[in-house]
Specification:
By secondary structure, the protein is of the alpha+beta class. 41% of the residues lie in helices and 17% in strands. The strands form 3 sheets. Strands 1, 2, 3, 4, 5, 6, 7 and 8 form an 8-stranded mixed β-sheet that branches. A two-stranded parallel sheet has the order 9-10. A two-stranded antiparallel ribbon has the order 11-12. A hairpin with a 2-residue loop joins strand 2 and strand 3. The longest helix is centred in the C-terminal third of the chain and has 17 residues.
């Protein structure tokens, strides 16, 4: 901060640029001053009079935790803000776009994108004051009124696309359940060479069988652990052994690996080539590990006798609805019950209640 012409200013090292005939400035800000100078529209203001969505307070603790738990490894993208017109850019040299941006302290700086990051920064600094010394990039636009700010919000979010669950799992090295899924996909049959690593679904003619995200979900179910739980080396070993044994007892998976049938043909005709079947197998594995911790390996063998064809009437209104696969949780549970019955696994009271309701 400096004093210019007897007025107090925030002073930021900045780069000046131009978009759509309008100036903008890229600056770096210490995290400690972010909560002090950046505001967002009050939630009580009607949507038509705001330039931003209402803040979702439920998102803030998760982002805060990310900052606090990863002080030397977090990554935050730039905030985008509109600032009143009375800003001053002082070039480092005549005609240079490198310089210093002076923003009057009384100027209103409105966040167009990044309000949840701003709120999380404020909370994280309370727990880890040293984070206040870090910096974040800020993209400043000159405020041209409410209409322009609302259009900026719409434009900034119009083309935003979240990565698929599979791609997120592939690249997320903080998530131990994703690490387990990656290991399975790269090392354990039937997943190795047959896992779609990037997309959230397997294309009709794809040479893959399962998505990385479906392997992750099925393994979380198998080990009875949520997405936020910590997965150990023992979990990895157990999951590897379980899926390997299942693979040994499912002839259709082995046929794909032997090139006797194509993955696309298997997916067209059998439910065990889809996430529905995989998650159901995860549920059955969880039951086996709970009820038969010592002899679950032997108990799993009758899986080889199951008729996995979609045309098998036993899957009607379970995995199959009106000739199409159903991905609902109820469908997966009902599918798992059929597999449990094939393995002579006793149903819990909840599982039996679901069966009774299905029979009605």
């Amino acid at each position: 901060m400096t004093q210019v012409d007897s007025n107090f200013f925030y002073s930021f090292p900045a780069v000046r640029g131009q978009q759509a005939d309008r100036p903008f400035y890229i600056a770096t800000c210490p995290l400690r001053i972010i909560p002090k100078i950046f505001i967002f529209d009050e939630e009580e203001v009607p949507a038509e009079l705001r330039a931003q969505r209402s803040i979702n307070k439920a998102r803030i603790p998760e982002i805060t935790r990310y900052l606090v738990d990863n002080p030397t490894g977090y990554v935050f993208s730039a905030l985008t803000a509109s600032v009143e017109k009375n800003v001053t850019f002082l070039p480092a040299a005549e005609g240079s776009d490198l310089g210093t941006l002076h923003v009057p302290m009384e100027a209103q700086i409105l966040i167009n994108d990044g309000q949840h990051r701003r709120a999380a920064i404020e909370e994280a600094i309370k727990e880890r004051p040293e984070l206040g010394q870090d910096n974040i990039a800020v993209l400043f636009f000159v405020d041209e009124g409410l209409t322009r700010s609302q259009q900026m919000f719409a434009d900034l979010n119009k083309h935003a696309v979240r990565p698929s669950p599979s791609l997120s799992s592939l690249y997320d090295f903080r998530d131990s359940s994703a690490a387990v899924a990656r290991h399975l996909a790269l090392n354990i049959a039937p997943f190795v060479a047959y896992t779609e690593m990037e997309k959230s679904s397997v294309a009709l003619k794809s040479a893959k069988l399962f998505t990385l995200s479906s392997i992750k979900q099925a393994t979380q179910i198998l080990l009875n652990k949520g997405s936020k739980a910590s997965f150990t080396d023992d979990d990895l070993d157990l999951a590897s052994e379980y899926w390997s044994l299942v693979n040994n007892h499912i002839a259709e998976w082995q046929m794909v690996q032997a090139k006797d049938i194509s993955p696309s043909q298997l997916r067209q005709e059998f439910i065990n080539a889809h996430g529905v079947g995989l998650q159901a197998l995860g549920m059955v594995g969880q039951s086996l590990l709970r009820l038969h911790p010592e002899d679950w390996r032997e108990k799993i063998e009758p899986i080889r006798n199951i008729d996995w064809r979609k045309a098998n009437p036993v899957w009607d209104n379970r995995a199959m609805h009106h000739g199409r696969l159903s991905k609902t949780t109820t469908s997966i549970k009902l599918t798992a019950n059929i597999i449990r019955q094939a393995l002579s696994i006793a149903l819990t009271s909840q599982e039996q209640q679901l069966e009774d309701e299905f029979e009605k």
